[in-house]
From TrEMBL:
<dbReference type="Pfam" id="PF13817">
    <property type="entry name" value="DDE_Tnp_IS66_C"/>
</dbReference>
<dbReference type="InterPro" id="IPR039552">
    <property type="entry name" value="IS66_C"/>
</dbReference>
<dbReference type="InterPro" id="IPR004291">
    <property type="entry name" value="Transposase_IS66_central"/>
</dbReference>
<dbReference type="Pfam" id="PF03050">
    <property type="entry name" value="DDE_Tnp_IS66"/>
</dbReference>
<protein>
    <submittedName>
        <fullName>Mobile element protein</fullName>
    </submittedName>
</protein>
<dbReference type="InterPro" id="IPR052344">
    <property type="entry name" value="Transposase-related"/>
</dbReference>
<feature type="domain" description="Transposase IS66 central">
    <location>
        <begin position="2"/>
        <end position="230"/>
    </location>
</feature>
<feature type="domain" description="Transposase IS66 C-terminal">
    <location>
        <begin position="237"/>
        <end position="274"/>
    </location>
</feature>
Amino acid sequence: MRVILLSQPLIHGDETTVQVLKEPGKSAQSKSYMWTYRSAQDCDQPVVLFEYQPGREQAHPQLFLAGYEGMLMSDGYSAWRTVKGVTHYGCAAHARRKFDEAFKAQKKPDGRAKQGLEFFKALYEVERLARGDLPEGETRIDYTYRLRQKHSVPLLEAFKKWLDEQADKVLPQSLIGKAISYTRNQWVYMSRYVEDARAPIDNNVMEREVRPFATSRKSWLFNDTVAGAKASATIYSLVLTCRACNVEPFEYLCEVLTELPQRAAGADVSDLLPFNIGERLARRKPTAD
């Protein structure tokens, strides 16, 4: 699945913590990480991959994405920006979240935080329109690009001008100061999506894939060994790829575990990947009379 993921024009990336009790050279209380990768939301062969690593160093995404030359969407964590050869994109949802935190902390319902949120609201409205009904004779790519150039580009220009004007008027360590600073620091990456209609405005599709892991982690708490953490990464990768492909995970696993013992060692099993097996499983379901 990694080979297929790296062949696609866009990859989303993120990372989340996991605790491993018996890890060489580390205490049981220390943090390890699941590095997560996903293909574009609307691609023909959706792939979700979890990779266990003992740390959060930049070497991990560098190695996983070595040789990749497509688009990479991530949050503001600096390790992602060290990946060479890709076109980096930043997540608008992360920046918006900081303005939302500042807004909720205010006693008055107006002010700079609300102004910032209004800019994000307008930008996301353009994205909503781009997902709507297509004008006759226009492709989704062309329609999205046209809307972004007409509406998002001037919005971003006005937003950037406003951010620059406000930067010296706020306390750097205040919530609104941090929101403005973060957005300005990420601006090159966060605003780049208007240049390519295939690029998303945010990393939300990746965060939705991480959420089941983060939620279930509250129940199982930790992995006992490194081998267990790697096995967990494999299971989450398969199940979440199934979900991305609209394939029922239990049906998929039953089919694969029945079919694999019948294959010779080293045989091609690409037909058993979730995005290839979906039609076969669908044909077996009984149809209504």
